[in-house]
Queue: 4 jobs
Job 1
Amino acid sequence: MSIKDFSLEGKHIVIVGASSGLGRAAAIACAESGAAVSICARREDKLKDVVKTLSGNNHGYAVVDVKDVSSINVGFDCFVDERGPISGMIFAAGISTVRPLSVIDEKSYDETMSINLKGALFCSKAALKNTRSIKNGSSIIFFSSISSYNTVGKGRILYSTSKAGVNGLMRALALDISSMKHRSNALLIGSIKTDIWDVDMVTEEQSAKYLSGSLIGEGEPDDVANACIYLLSDASKWVTGTALLIDGGYTLTE
Ligand SMILES: NC(=O)c1ccc[n+]([C@@H]2O[C@H](COP(=O)([O-])OP(=O)(O)OC[C@H]3O[C@@H](n4cnc5c(N)ncnc54)[C@H](OP(=O)(O)O)[C@@H]3O)[C@@H](O)[C@H]2O)c1
């Protein structure tokens, strides 16, 4: 074992949904670990601010709306032109829709699925387009949730369904891309305070309950970023098809 195996030196990492929260923390950690970092999301002002905070200098951003496949393809082409073939991608884009069944309609279903699930699929496809777009032995990470298999509160039907789909995508993709030694893994993340908590229909009292419900204390964005460094680095070169639980023990029961 060498600590160098955990380095991202010489790698080009794309992070989708890095304008805030967990994706932003992952971008900062990847740059600190030596990677060239390409980030995207919809809010250009936030993306510019994140790029300014990254250590090193071979970084950049593109404005991408993952609901729109052509926007994804333009963004990824631009990243490959600017920084060369991709070594790893984190799909961190997501929205948290909290609605009881009676209020779910086609619009809210389409909105949640097109960002959380369709976005994850078509960003993977854009990254894995051809041998010019991606290096052999790349690593794809999906930000999933404990909500994909555990009930963490009422009103999560759309969110849970989308994240369960992401888990399925991660496993099926891991099999399909294994011949080129590409890897696909997911993080099953527990509650961490970010902008995603500023949603309708979750009271401050409920948020506080979820955020403080982990057995070993509150989680921080860096707890997720550290796992990303491992999964993007050569230290995890034999790890694929895994859903890694990062929830501070929230889902443990006595
Ligand atoms: N924090 C938690 O408790 C928690 C728990 C489990 C899983 N997760 C997952 O972790 C991921 C990151 O969430 P977060 O907590 O960091 O929340 P966040 O701060 O709200 O970040 C969400 C990111 O997704 C991007 N995004 C949303 N819609 C997009 C679209 N249509 N196109 C492109 N980018 C889009 C946002 O950027 P723009 O608005 O600029 O587009 C932002 O960068 C999500 O997938 C979430 O489900 C979070």
Job 2
Amino acid sequence: MQSENLPRKPATPRRPLNSTVCSKCNSTDTQSFQMAYEAGTSSGTLQFTTYDPDAGFSASGGKTSNQTFLAQKVQPPVRPEWTFGEVFAVPFLAAIAFIIAASLNNAVLGIFLGLTVGSLMWYVINRRVSQKKPIYEKELSKWARSWICLRCGMTWLMRKH
Ligand SMILES: [Zn+2]
């Protein structure tokens, strides 16, 4: 094999390259993380509802957990979003605050408390989510440029053009 005659280079994964040929084993059997992820992930029909503060509730096609080991290794960063519990906690606690105040025969106070509790929680959760977004976007652009060698498993970043 030709590569065995070459002087051994130290393993430097993540070194930016601008070739799709593996610099470690010279294999051309390489894929971008995105290609490898999509190839190794079979889309199921599972649907779940997510909440995006900008767009509101939306039903999105969820991928079932039927993934190859490779797909798990090259999966994209997780988008910061409201958790399932948070989506329900905000209106739930706002309603509780309203009911407590309304039980004192004070509907105005109830509406005030409900709105205050609801918007306070919305603010706190939304801030947590949006603080993670720049990190996520950085990771995502890195992921989009990541490649993996299907023969030796080396990963590297494609140099920006
Ligand atoms: Zn390789």
Job 3
Amino acid sequence: MPKPALQSSFLATALLAWYPRHHRDLPWRHTRDPYAIWLSEVILQQTRVAQGLPYYERFLAAYPTVQALAAAPEQEVLRLWQGLGYYSRARNMHLTAQQVVQEYDGRFPSTYAELLKLRGVGPYTAAAIASFAFDEPVAVLDGNVYRVLARIFGLHSDIAAPASRKEFQALADQHIPATAPADFNQAIMEFGAIQCTPVKPDCLFCPLQQQCWAFQHGQVAVLPIKSKAKASRVRYFQYFVLRYQEQLYLRERREKDIWQGLYDFALTETTIPEIPPAEVLRHLEALGAVVDTRQVAEPSAAFRHVLSHQKLEARFHPVALAQPLPASTLQDLGLRAYTLAEADALPKPILIANYLTRMY
Ligand code: SF4
């Protein structure tokens, strides 16, 4: 059977009728302030609404304007972001705020094309700000929108392939009404989030059931087509939690790797999950740490953490030092001694923050 012909407005009509009755009441839906909208979009990327909501409120309370965010120290921004993951987003967000202040006099550009020129602002975020704050009829495309369009129109293109974007964007742009672009964009994303969900969509009570190609052809579970991401790499971290009296040694991660700008402990990466005690002592010796074997505690159980392309498995080796670390080690490893209160205030990967909360 041929796929349904595109009609210009059945989708908009159905979604605009569905939205007022079903949408969740979320704070960023009550604002037209491009700064607040941008903040919510950055926070919600790769984050569930329930998890992102308190961060949105915290950021807006700490930095009510783009000027306030731009002027904040990066370390403070990262600390506030702690727990959300993908820390490059926080760093980019901070740089974008500075760009808006320096190059745009503190006012967000008001068109899709201009918004795209901002650092870290891609087509999705630009479309969200342009439509929600400035009523520009440009369609947003996120995972929810891809799914809804693929199912309703029977599109079999791989949504993970960059080439598919054009096809989906053209289709969505064809259906967005010039009179209500913000509501249409909110509606189609919300419809994907709560009605046309990835698993067990609510087809039975769906207002688009009749027009939905996937439903009519029994292909709901098949669409959208998404090729598998590359298998993620497993990394084993051995953390040496060096403590001298009431102070812990931490370092800022400067290398080009995950968690740039965050703080963790002295680290050795290994090819096996656990290392034997003799190996632990050898590593400590190499660090110039003066310990006796009674002061090296058993390693922690594994702390696991999944990133987009990596799976981390960390073990912590607590070590009570008999003397402070030598200056040469501090210099070589970039370590510094912090009191517990100071360590608490540093921006840290959630893995480290969880360990500290559990142990101290
Ligand atoms: S009928 Fe099912 S698959 Fe089709 S749009 Fe509705 S919820 Fe989605």
Job 4
Amino acid sequence: MADGVCSIQICMGSSCFSRGNGLNAELIQRMMSDGENIGKFSSAEISGTLCEGLCKDGPIVIIDGTVYRHVTPIVLQDLLKKRDEVSA
Ligand code: FES
């Protein structure tokens, strides 16, 4: 990963996908394509992962190596904004 580029990994295993990561993936794509203010994350590397083995705590999203559990779309928006503010 290049310097300054952030990573967002979305678990696309069946449990996480059906419990919210399908919506989370759409949300991130929409935020990036609409140019919404998500700071450093507007150029993030987005990828999907296979099951992370944490299904009971899903949906799982990993941002810059930190695992976040129970990530709803509202939680995801807050996480991206807060993490961007902390790094600014
Ligand atoms: S499907 Fe995401 S942790 Fe298992």
